[in-house]
Write a structure and sequence with these properties.
With 485 residues, this protein is mainly β. Among the domains are: 55 residues, ligand-binding face of the semaphorins, domain 2 (2-Layer Sandwich); 115 residues, Immunoglobulin-like, CATH 2.60.40; 32 residues, Laminin (Ribbon), CATH 2.10.25.10; 31 residues, no CATH class; 79 residues. The protein has five helices and 34 strands. The strands form twelve sheets. It has a six-stranded mixed β-sheet with strand order 4-6-14-13-8-11, with no helix packed on it. Strands 5-7-12-9-10 form a five-stranded antiparallel β-sheet, with no helix packed on it. Strands 31-34-33-32 form a four-stranded mixed β-sheet, covered by helices on one side. It starts with a helix and ends with a strand. It is a single-pass type I membrane protein. Keywords: Calcium, Cell adhesion, Cell membrane, Disulfide bond, EGF-like domain, Glycoprotein, Integrin, Magnesium, Membrane, Metal-binding, Repeat, Signal, Transmembrane, Transmembrane helix. Belongs to the integrin beta chain family. One of its GO terms (cellular component) is integrin complex. This is Integrin beta-1.
Length: 485
């Protein structure tokens, strides 16, 4: 295969894999801590100075990359119940009546939320159908309660779950109401409020929730978490930024006018883009220099390895010569070289790890046929296609005619010390393992592996019985029945 085709294929595969990984991780595209936490609660920021990988990522990824626990910025939302006066606990048959301003039908009355983008806050709301008329008539003793909210700021969402009489719960459009509520009965609602992004540019908002037709209401203060705490500790003209040409904020340099780069090391006149890091990414949202180097004014400088033989390469440091497949614990099986994650095999070798020899000499049978004509040579090893044949070169056929006669003399001399080969037995007959058993214990025809049952006559004119097979390790195996007295 053409080397250029192999390299191109490897590069496209690497790009596809990296793009697939980043498509599901929107965190790493954030440039600032504020942008990071607005993507969603799964994204956290590393403010450690000198941290080179993407600073916005999942927390476990940042910690694996070396971010310290103290360097993690991960603000969470909170909820505070500011006013929580209980609903009125009076029965309708009490003679002394309350004035309208003494009746409280809804609890709580005031709540303050701090909302992080994508992180919902929940609280429970109780409504009690208290006596609201000093001269209540029977037909007014049952009612429907419907919660309604004031207009929501853009990017704020609210949902209700009602818990009505008899354990009935409703969601979505029916989650904000309960029917047939008699005086003195309570119903409860679960409220969930969530923000996306940074609504109202971070300015606090107030919304109200009230039961339709009643005066009582719940006041909800919405505070939006749009920036990190480290934003307050920014250092203008920080020496951490090249020639103090930027403000150090949450571990990164925010460059002064006319300066660009991660450390404000570039002049705007030196590069052709507002974001020099963009020239160091192989694709949108991918790591700068594939996380294997540094972007210096729009050009990747690949990092060095402890082993000088191991090197990163490529425009985006996307290649290396050490992460190819291995065989027998050797890179490319010791039969090729690694280029951009792909093994380029030496002559007479193939496979992902160059572990498949093309040489067929190890498959040559004694008759000079590859695998005895009964199989195929696969990476230097015979794979027998005729099920009757076995062995390293598919030459052994335990069930073929002539097997018994072929092994008879060696079996006799080893088992009974008689026969034509008794004087040369040690020299000629050590090629099989042997076990003497009672005749009833001989392997049966259906036992694996393939077995040949033999009946031969010994020198003393007695018949003897044996089986011949090739075991799972490819070795000859014989079981001989002892002479019966």
């Amino acid at each position: 295969m053409n080397v250029m085709v192999i390299l191109t294929s490897a590069l496209l595969a690497l790009f596809a894999q990296s793009r697939a990984n980043t498509d599901s991780n929107k965190c790493i595209s954030a440039k600032t801590c504020g942008q990071c936490i607005q993507i969603g609660p799964q994204c956290v920021w590393c403010k450690d100075p000198g941290f080179k990988p993407a600073r916005c990522d999942h927390q476990d990824s940042l910690e694996r990359a070396g971010c310290t626990v103290l360097g993690i910025e991960n603000p969470r939302g909170t909820i505070t119940i500011d006013k929580n006066k209980p609903v009125t606990k009076r029965k309708i048959d009490v003679e002394e009546k309350l004035m309208p301003d003494e009746i409280n039908r809804i609890q709580p009355q005031k709540v303050t939320l701090h909302l992080r983008s994508g992180e919902a806050q929940q609280f429970k709301l109780t409504f009690k159908r208290a006596e609201d008329n000093l001269n209540a008539q029977p037909d007014s003793l049952s009612s429907e309660v419907i919660l309604q909210n004031s207009p929501l700021p853009d990017g704020v969402y609210i949902s209700f779950v009602s818990h009505c009489k008899n354990g009935v719960s409703e969601r979505e459009e029916n989650g904000c109401k309960c029917s047939n509520i008699s005086i003195g009965e309570e119903v409860k609602f679960d409220l969930e409020i969530m923000a996306k992004g940074c609504p109202s540019n971070g300015t606090s908002e107030t919304i109200k929730i009230k039961p339709l037709g009643f005066n009582e209401e719940v006041e909800i203060i919405l505070n939006f978490i749009c920036e990190c705490e480290c934003h307050k500790d920014k250092i203008p003209n920080s020496p951490a930024c090249t020639d103090s040409n930027g403000t150090l904020e949450c571990g990164v340099c925010r460059c002064n006018e006319g300066r660009l780069g991660r450390l404000c090391e570039c002049s705007r006149d030196e590069v052709q883009t507002e974001d020099p890091d963009a020239n160091c990414r192989m694709g949108y949202e991918m790591d700068i220099c594939s996380n294997n180097g540094e972007c210096v004014c729009g050009t990747c400088e690949c990092k060095k390895r402890d082993n000088p033989e191991e090197k990163y390469s490529g425009t985006f440091c996307e290649c290396d010569n050490f992460s190819c497949d291995r065989s027998n614990n050797k890179l490319c099986g010791g039969h090729g070289r690694c280029e951009c994650h792909t093994c380029l095999c030496d002559a007479n070798y193939m496979g992902r790890a160059c572990d498949c020899p093309l040489d067929t000499s190890t498959c040559m049978a004694s008759n000079k046929l590859i695998c005895n004509g009964r199989g195929v040579c696969d990476c230097g090893v015979c794979r027998c296609t005729d099920s009757k044949f076995q062995g390293k070169t598919c030459e052994i056929c335990p069930t073929c005619p002539g097997v018994c006669a072929e092994h008879k003399d060696c079996v006799e001399c080893r088992a009974f010390h008689t026969g034509d080969k008794k004087d040369t037995c040690d020299r000629d007959c050590g090629y099989f393992s042997m076990k003497v058993v009672k005749r009833k214990d001989l392997p049966q025809p259906l036992d694996p592996p393939y077995i040949t049952h033999c009946k031969e006559k010994a020198d003393n004119d007695h018949w003897f019985f044996f089986t011949y097979a090739l075991n799972n390790d490819g070795n000859d195996e014989v079981h001989v029945a002892e002479f019966e007295k």
